[in-house]
Amino acid sequence: MASTTLQQISVSLDTRIPLEAMVLQRLHRLPKDRQNDWLRQLVLTAFQSECHAIKSEQRQPAFTNSMGKSNATSYMYSGHNAPIPKQQRTEAVAGSQNFGNMTDLPNIFPVNKAQKPFTHLRRVIGEQ
Amino acid sequence: MTELTDEKNTDQRQASIADNPMQVVQVGLDDGYAYTKVALPDGRLVSVPSRARMGAAGVTWIRDVEQRIFEYETAGSVYSVGAVDGEPTQFDEYPGSALNRVIVQHALQEAGLSGRSLHMVTGLPVAAFYRGDGQQRNQAIQTKRDGLKLTVEPVVAKKSSKRQALKASIAFHEVIPEALAAWYDFVIVTLDDGVTLDADRLNAPIAIVDIGGRTTDYVVVQDQGVVHGSSGSLNRGMLDVKLRVANLIQERFDLHELGEQIISRAVDTNRLRLHGKDHDVSDMVMNAKRELVERLYAETRRKLGLGVELDRILFVGGGSAALSSDIADWFPNQTIADHAAFANARGMLKYLQFVCDDS
To answer: What pLDDT, on the 0 to 100 scale, is given for residue B189?
Structure first.
């Protein structure tokens, strides 16, 4: 990466604040060559989380609507071979477009970020 | 050793990915010891050989389109990936290694994901994912999860103003057992207008046999649970064919050393070119394959018996495609998956799209 595209930021953390102290403690446990990557990942994850929260608030009416539909579709997933229309899977996000003029945040989330239809299949692997 | 590889056209590749560069792309990636396979939500499947070595290539490419060796930097070291004599990938730590990391980054670049932020699911061999008692090997899984999140920079961006090769950044990474990924591919069926579960496949007792490069994985799924007694990994795969052929060639032609790419080509084409002359090595390749098939057959019988209690035995992995004629009559109720080399990558993508929590 060209050096002009890399920008360094400096952050001060206060050890008197428990959460910030924990971040520092976790950071110092890592090998030196991984610390920068870990911090970068931490910032990106936090930013994603913030974007997600803001978008959730903005699309509240549409999201509520999609939750109602997800109850209906969960019946179809449980062994009946009825396909789930893509329209329903994308509705929560598509609905947010109605509020598009209220935000200039980039849409950094996958289209089917709404309720995943087959989460119960994680148990096959052994996940809870 | 031949696996299906999509024709690559950069313009078409770029056009088929969502136009918004800020949008996360979901990726299923099966980073095998022989080939690294990528499945994308638009249906494209891309495969690259898992071939890299430490150090710069030392080649100046006059035309970008001719470039066949690509350099990447990670953790302060430069690696060359592509048309190089690759370092062996057959070591236990490969899944979390820098070698693995640069090969994965190269596969993502070849898939047209330069500069994109990704959510990704990859895999570990069954025996590397589970202990014998069925408990997950959390440390190995976490090592793999963390390993691929480390930064890998395409070096080309530093050297050329014409090529724009930005790293593909992995924002979310989950790891699942490799052969089990093929089960998800088998039971989750995508249709033109949505997605569904195949109820018959979901509850039927099914064995997946995944013949890969270094390992052959077995997974039996019954009542939506893994039967650990019949599941596991055998450290045999298509790379053993290559190793055996290399030994036979050295013996017959009295050679001390031969490049890894020449051996690969000999296995793929049954011909070896030495001193400008072609030599037929089909008997060596056939013998090496037969030895592998015999070993796999014995292990498969040991794990699955005659398969009478199984509804189906599904063969997946690049080895299943390459050995299709040799394994054709092992079980009356067996099937070789469509594009078998990509079954795991497809399953990993479906797991990401429809099962796991990547919020």
So the answer is: 95
Average pLDDT, chain B: 89
In three-state form (DSSP H/G/I as H, E/B as E, the rest C), the secondary structure along chain A is CCHHHCCCCCCCCCCCCHHHHHHHHHHHHCCHHHHHHHHHHHHHHHHHHHHHHHHHHHCHHHHHHHHHHHHHHHHHHCCCCCCEEHHHHCHHHHHHHHHHHHCCCCCCCCCCCCCCCCHHHHHHHCCC
Q: What is the chain B residue with the closest CA to A53? A: B359
pTM of full prediction above 0.90: no
Higher pLDDT, B67 or B308: B308
Contact A108, A51 (CB under 8 A): yes
Closest approach of chain B CAs to the CA of A2, in angstroms?
6
pLDDT at residue B65, rounded to an integer: 66
Q: Closest-CA residue in chain A for B224?
A: A124
Say if CB A76 and CB A84 are below 8 A apart: yes
d(CA B90, CA B244): 14
The number of C-beta contacts closer than 8 angstroms across A and B is 107
pLDDT for residue A67: 32
Q: Residue B197: CB partners within 8 Å, gap ≥ 6?
A: A77, A79, A81, A118, B187, B188, B189
Q: How far is A20 from chain B (nearest CA, A)?
A: 22
- Smallest CA-to-CA distance from B209 within B292, B314, B139, B298 is with B314
Which residues, at least 6 apart from A81, have a Cβ–Cβ distance to it below 8 Å? B196, B197, B198, B199
Residue in chain B lying closest to A5 (CA): B166
Q: In the predicted model, is pLDDT for residue B240 greater than 90?
A: yes
Which pLDDT value is given to residue B16?
A: 53
Q: What is the pLDDT of residue B163?
A: 57
- Among A4, B240, B207, smallest CA distance to B248 is for B240
pLDDT given at position A61:
42
Could you say which of A1, A52, A123 has the minimum Cβ distance to residue B224?
A123
Min mean pLDDT across B184-188, B191-195, B277-281 is at B191-195
- B63 or B194: which leads in pLDDT: B194
Is residue B328 within 8 Å of B9, Cβ to Cβ? no
ipTM: 0.83
Q: b or e along B181-203 (b: 16 or more beta carbons within 10 Å of the residue's beta carbon)? A: bbbbbbbbebeeebbbbeeebbe
Task: Output b/e per residue, B238-261; b: 16+ Cβ within 10 A.
Answer: bbbbbebbbebbeeeeeeeebebe
Q: Which residues of B touch A52 (CB under 8 A)?
A: 359
pLDDT in tens, A94-105: 333 333 333 333
Say how far apart CA B177 and CA B221 lie, in whole Å.
12
**B202–A117: do the CB atoms touch at under 8 Å?**
no
